[in-house]
Design a protein that fits this description.
The chain is of the alpha/beta class. The chain is built from 16 helices and twelve strands. Strands 2-1-3-4-5-11 form a six-stranded parallel β-sheet, with helices on both faces. Strands 7-6-8-9-10-12 form a six-stranded mixed β-sheet, sandwiched between helices. Strand 1, helix 8 and strand 2 form a beta-alpha-beta unit. Helix 2 runs antiparallel to helix 3. The protein is globular.
C-alpha cells in the first residue's frame, strides 16, 4: 500500500515535477563521483566547491518553478491546473509537504557530500605539512612521497628528514599512503601524482607489474621516480636509495649467530617476511641461510624457516604473531623481524604469554616501545636504518636529476644494530 500512496503523492500533472524529483539521487551520485575524480586530477578546491554549489543551485532552479513551492507551496493553496481543467479543487497539503521534504533532502545531501569529499581532500593537503600553509612561500619543486603505510614510525621519520632536506632546496614534499583514514592503493596514488604533474616521486617500491607500469608512465611524463628500500631496476626509475641486500643479509646472519643457544642441537630461526616473491627479501633470506649453514658453530643444528606476513598493518601482525606463539611446534628459538610493527607485536606477545627469556627477538627499527625493550634487555638487538640519511639522499637524487638531467643510480644508506650497550 505504501508504494501506491507514494505514487499518488508524487503524481503531478504531466509527471514533470515527479520525474525531476526522482532524478535527484542519480544526479547526486553521478556528480559526487565526478567531484572526487576532479580532485584526484588536481583541480583547485575552491573551483570545485563553486562548481558543486552552482550545480546544486541550478538543480533547484530546474525543479522549483514547475512545483507548487513558489506559489501554492508557500501559501498552502490549491491545484490550479486541476481547477482549470474543470476538476474539483483538492487540498495540496500532502503533495506540497512531500515536495518540500524532497527539495530540503536534496540540499542536505549536497552539503553532506561536499563536506565528506572536501574533508578527504583537505586531509590529503594537510599531509603536506605545516610548511605548506604557514609562510606562503612559492616552492621551486613539489615532490610526492608514496609509501604503503604512512602511519608506520619508520616512514614518518623518513618523511620528516625528507621534508627537512627539501626545505633547504626550497622544495615541498607531500606524504601519501594508506593510513587509518585512507585505504587508497599505491597504484591509485601514483595515478594521482602523475595526473597532478608533480616534479618528482619518492616511492616505496612494493613490486608488481602495475607499479612498474606507473613508474614507466611517470618517466614518460617527465616525472623522475626514486625508489626507497626496495629497488625496481627494470623500470625507468632514476635512482634507488636503500641498503645493499647482500650486506643486510650477512649482517642479519652475524647477529643471529650471537643469539643462537650454544648448547641446543635443534635450533629454529624464524624470519618474518612481507613478500616472499620480492627479490630483495629473497636475497636477504638466502644470505642469512648461507651464513647459518656454513658457520661451524651452527652448521647442521640450525634451521631457518620463513613466515610470510599478510600485510604491514598492526591487526594482521598481531594475528600472525599470536598464531606463531600457539602453533603446535612451539615458539621458535630466534624470531627475526623485518618491520617495526612486527617487532612491537612480537614483544607484546612475549609479555602477554610470559615468554620473555625463552624467545630471542631480533627487532627492526627504533620506536619508543622497541628502544625501551632494548634497554631492559628483553629485545637483545634491533636493526636501525639511518632515516635522516635516507631522506637526504632522496631529495639529493631528485635535485641532481632536475638540475643536471642525471643522478646516481644507487645511494647506500648506513645501518646500525642497537643493543643494550649502545642504545643511549
Amino acid at each position: 500500500m505504501w508504494h501506491s500512496k507514494l505514487a499518488e503523492l508524487l503524481r503531478i500533472r504531466k509527471g514533470r515535477i515527479g520525474q525531476k524529483c526522482l532524478f535527484l539521487p542519480s544526479f547526486l551520485f553521478m556528480w559526487n563521483n565526478l567531484y572526487i575524480m576532479m580532485m584526484q586530477c588536481g583541480w583547485n578546491i575552491h573551483i570545485l566547491w563553486l562548481t558543486r554549489y552552482s550545480s546544486a543551485a541550478a538543480w533547484l532552479l530546474f525543479i522549483l518553478p514547475e512545483s507548487s513551492i513558489w506559489g501554492e507551496a508557500l501559501s498552502g493553496g490549491w491545484d490550479r491546473e486541476a481547477d482549470r481543467e474543470g476538476g474539483h479543487r483538492k487540498p495540496m497539503k500532502n503533495r506540497v509537504r512531500l515536495e518540500r521534504i524532497i527539495v530540503i533532502a536534496g540540499i542536505l545531501v549536497v552539503l553532506f557530500l561536499t563536506l565528506v569529499t572536501s574533508s578527504y581532500y583537505q586531509n590529503v593537503l594537510n599531509q603536506v605539512g605545516k610548511d605548506g600553509g604557514e609562510d606562503g612561500n612559492e616552492y621551486r619543486y613539489h615532490y610526492v612521497m608514496i609509501v604503503e603505510d604512512c602511519d608506520m614510525p619508520f616512514w614518518k621519520d623518513v618523511y620528516e628528514s625528507t621534508r627537512e632536506a627539501a626545505r633547504e632546496h626550497n622544495a615541498l614534499v607531500e606524504l601519501m599512503g594508506k593510513s587509518l583514514s585512507s585505504t587508497i592503493e599505491i597504484e591509485s596514488l601514483m595515478d594521482m601524482a602523475i595526473a597532478s604533474g608533480v616534479d618528482g616521486i619518492i616511492l616505496e617500491y612494493t613490486g608488481g607489474h602495475k607499479i612498474d607500469e606507473r613508474i614507466n608512465e611517470a618517466g614518460k611524463a617527465g616525472i623522475p621516480v626514486v625508489t626507497v628500500l626496495k629497488d625496481a631496476p627494470d623500470t625507468s626509475r632514476i635512482s634507488f636509495v636503500g641498503v645493499n641486500d647482500y650486506q643486510l643479509g650477512r649482517q642479519y646472519g652475524e647477529q643471529i649467530l650471537k643469539l643462537v643457544p650454544p648448547d641446543k642441537d635443534d635450533v629454529e630461526v624464524m624470519l618474518l617476511l612481507h613478500d616472499r616473491d620480492n627479490s630483495s627479501q629473497v636475497q636477504i633470506a638466502e644470505q642469512i641461510n648461507n651464513l647459518l649453514v656454513t658457520s661451524p658453530d651452527t652448521s647442521g643444528r640450525v634451521r631457518l624457516i620463513q613466515e610470510t606476513m599478510r600485510s604491514t598493518g598492526k591487526v594482521d601482525a598481531d594475528e600472525t604473531i599470536r598464531n606463531i606463539f600457539f602453533r603446535k611446534e612451539g615458539i621458535p628459538d630466534v624470531l627475526v623481524c623485518t618491520e617495526a610493527v612486527d617487532t612491537e607485536a612480537a614483544y607484546q606477545a612475549m609479555i602477554d604469554y610470559n615468554k620473555v627469556g625463552e624467545l630471542q627477538l631480533l627487532g627492526y627499527y627504533k620506536s619508543d616501545q622497541i628502544l625501551e625493550a632494548v634497554r631492559k634487555g628483553n629485545i637483545p638487538v634491533t636493526l636501525v636504518i639511518d632515516t635522516e640519511q635516507m631522506g637526504r639522499y632522496c631529495v639529493q637524487a631528485l635535485e641532481e636529476y632536475l638540475q643536471e638531467g642525471h643522478a646516481n643510480s644507487y645511494y647506500s644508506v648506513d645501518l646500525q644494530f642497537v643493543t643494550k650497550e649502545n642504545v643511549d
